[in-house]
Amino acid sequence: MITSEKKKQIVLKNCIKADDKPVKYQEITINSENPEDMTFTDYFANDEAKATYKENRTEIRKLEAAFEDEAYTEQEALASYKTLEE
Prior knowledge:
By secondary structure, the chain is an alpha+beta fold. It has one domain. Helix content is 44%, strand content 33%. The protein contains two helices and three strands; from the N terminus they run E-E-E-H-H. The protein has a three-stranded antiparallel β-sheet with strand order 1-2-3. The chain is elongated and about 55 Å long.
């Protein structure tokens, strides 16, 4: 028997830059079937970016937090939609 199982995910990506150079990447994945299931990934663009992050960490952390807030808003909207479907 051949079957197919499809899953939907919402993937949000963010690239934080300083002087138009990437410093840090963020990726958040929300499982559409179970919106409470979220995966957070972040990483530096390169070794030079780590020094830039250290020098600008207060502002960069604000941007990181704002992106995470957007993801939580998306998660809540999806969870509300799933509740309406049931």
